[in-house]
Amino acid sequence: MTDKCKTLYLYCPDGTIIEELEYDGYGTFGGQDAYALLARWNLPELCNGDDDNDRGFGIDLFFTASGDGQNMDMKYPLKFSFSPHKKYEDLPVALYCETQGFIDDEMYIF
Questions:
Q1: Which residue spans within the chain are E strands per DSSP?
Q2: pLDDT for res 5
Q3: Which of 37, 40, 61, 108 shows its CA 20 to 30 Å from the CA of 52?
């Protein structure tokens, strides 16, 4: 999408940090699907480990939780940062962005 991407980090509730050097706006971070991870963290009983299956549950969870992805009641929401030196619990919940994290071809948030 752009050659101006900043390194972005997806923070996981277990303390894992996934680095993405060239985020393309489709929810893939370090080769992992953020929506599939979201489903696995919050709806493990529905997930089977297959990204295609689990991604659907994650997308539904993210967008139907409150209509815009701002579900503050979700136990483990998506969290991102441009810094690799944060803690999951200290980061704000990722909000829906209709431009998938890009404004004027420059990445600014998820």
A1: 8-11, 17-20, 28-29, 32-33, 79-81, 102-103, 106-107
A2: 64
A3: 108
